[in-house]
Amino acid sequence: MTSPVSRGFHRLSRPAGAEGGKLPPGQHVTTDFPVLSAGPTPHTPLHEWTFSIRQGGQTLRSWTWPEVQDLPAETVTVDIHCVTRWSKLGTQWRGVPVRALLDQVEHDAQYVLAFSDGGYTTNLPVKDVSGGQAWLAFDYDGQPLAPEHGGPARLLVPHLYFWKSAKWVRGLELLDHDQPGFWENYGYNNYGDPWREQRYAGD
Amino acid sequence: MAGTAVRGRLSWQVATVAAVIEETDSVRTIALDLPDWPGHRAGQHLDIRLTAEDGYSAERSYSIASADGEPVNITVERLEDGEVSPYLTQELRPGDQMEVRGPIGNWFTWGPHDGGPLLLIAGGSGVVPLRAILRHRQRSRSSVPVRLLYSSRSLADVIYREELDQYGRSAEVNYTLTRSQPPDWGGFSGRVDDAMLARVAWPASQRPLAFICGPTPFVEAVAELLVARHYLSGRVKTERFGGA
Amino acid sequence: MPFDGNAIGGLLLEIFGSDMTSAEASCATCGAVGPVAETTVYLRGPGTVVRCRRCTSVLMVVARVRGLNCVDLSGLAALEVEY
């Protein structure tokens, strides 16, 4: 049975054409900023917060919140694409390039597994976070990043589906193999390129 | 036939809007014509699915506002940045169609055999399934004692006011208004707290059965208050509507 | 804010073929037992995540992948439902 059309119902978004830019396949533009979480919002106090790079059970390097704030930060304007099909264009973030953090550690890892408060993880190739297109972001739209959106700091990797931009990120585990993270374990793509529509494993 | 009933529950059926009733400025009751409806119990909900011309579809759950044996009604509150509720409360008109699945929910339901005394606590649109419970209790001529405590922002936001007021002494209905109260307001003011429950809630010694429904923070705060008043957690049933 | 297991009654009906909101779920991590209706549920993301209300461990995840409901129940020690 084909579903009857509900007269007058349409998705909450503007047509893609209105933006002028291109959208990845299967996406539509949203004007709000949906809050999608897999678990409760953590509330780690800033004086306890650290960001660590770990390998083989060891912490190679760790930064406290003040130490991260002391690093050179960038303000970037990027489009973000959620695998649930909404895209938000021209979002403004401020953060430290992940490259600046990884550069302070000697390693030959091929992959990282980002890990967050609450147990969320997501995997990425090292080159996707060390080439200048990934940030440890702590401001959104000129304001400190709200807890519901991943504050105090989240990973920002806009060239991949937004589940890779781990909220409440606390560090990167360096690995020599690609280790599926939370959503990757439940059927989502290990890489997640929205332009090749790599939503699910096997895409 | 049991097989047909199961099939009816599992699959989506086409519903036609029979009527719309404006309850408040932002709340509307929608009467649905569902020829293959298997019947429902007070407290249950249904899922609706709307499909746009381009094939985009959205699903949401709404509590059934009517009692066992009554035609299926749902009551929907418009959420300002919602995708579905603005459509249902403003655009939708009689004759329009949607898909419905249900009824759903064996946990959050009440019938006279479940006993009491009953304590119903509603936050905003959380009153919908509790109103269905009150209607069912009245239609069944049940004498199970019941009290409703209904929290709304203002009097204008109270849904089903006339209907709730007509229960008189057969069901004690208490209102609390959290943001504004009219002059000469005789009901409660402010959020549900322990002092209010001390006046409204059945003593734990009576082994009351409580149903709490509304936004998640409301439900969790009230449930905690009832457990602190020694209500058995297995006899405090909750339904969270998400949101703040 | 999250929902509770009532909100996935329809999804679970689709998967299990019967109403699961009253089913007793046992958490494989902390041992807590309670109705599915009382679990904490996170909706509308890449998948639906059901967590133990007591210890927040994941009980169940449902991801819709290419027309299939992919259901992971490994966080549950047991699920008991009346027949």
What does this protein look like?
The complex is a heterotrimer of chains A (203), B (244) and C (83). Chain A contains 4 helices and 11 strands. With 203 residues, chain A is mainly β. Chain A has a single domain, classed as Oxidoreductase, molybdopterin-binding domain (Sulfite Oxidase, Chain A, domain 2, Alpha-Beta Complex), CATH 3.90.420. Chain B is an alpha/beta fold and 244 residues long. Chain B folds into 2 domains: 102 residues, Translation factors (Elongation Factor Tu (Ef-tu), domain 3, Beta Barrel), CATH 2.40.30; 129 residues, Nucleotide-binding domain of ferredoxin-NADP reductase (FNR) module (Rossmann fold). Chain B has 6 helices and 12 strands. Chain B starts with a helix and ends with a strand. The N terminus of chain B is likely disordered. With 83 residues, chain C is mainly β. Chain C is built from 1 helix and 8 strands. In chain C, the strands form 2 sheets. Chain C has a 5-stranded antiparallel sheet with strand order 1-4-5-6-7, with no helix packed on it. Chain C has a 3-stranded antiparallel sheet with strand order 3-2-8, with no helix packed on it. In chain C, β5 and β6 form a beta hairpin. Chains in contact: A-B, A-C, B-C. Chains B and C meet through α1, β6 and β12 of B and β1 and α1 of C.
Task: Give the strand order of the largest sheet of chain B, numbering strands 1, 2, ... along the chain.
Answer: 4-3-6-1-2-5
The structure class of chain A reads mainly beta
Report, as a whole number of angstroms, the end-to-end distance of chain A: 28 Å
Seen as an oligomer or otherwise, the chain set is heterotrimer
Q: Report the top-level CATH class of chain A.
A: Alpha Beta
Mean pLDDT of chain A: 94
The count of strands of chain B amounts to: 12
Topology:
The complex is a heterotrimer of chains A (203), B (244) and C (83).
Chain A: E1 28-29, E2 50-55, E3 58-64, H1 65-70, E4 74-81, E5 86-97, H2 98-102, E6 111-116, E7 121-125, H3 127-130, E8 135-140, E9 143-144, E10 154-156, E11 169-175, H4 182-185
Chain B: H1 2-10, E1 13-24, E2 27-33, E3 45-51, E4 57-63, E5 73-77, H2 85-91, E6 97-104, E7 118-123, H3 127-139, E8 146-152, H4 161-165, E9 172-177, E10 188-189, H5 194-200, E11 209-214, H6 216-228, E12 236-240
Parallel strand pairs in B: 7-8, 7-11, 8-9, 9-10, 11-12
Antiparallel strand pairs in B: 1-2, 1-6, 2-5, 3-4, 3-6
Chain C: E1 3-4, H1 9-16, E2 24-27, E3 33-35, E4 40-42, E5 47-51, E6 58-65, E7 68-72, E8 76-80
Antiparallel strand pairs in C: 1-4, 2-3, 2-8, 4-5, 5-6, 6-7
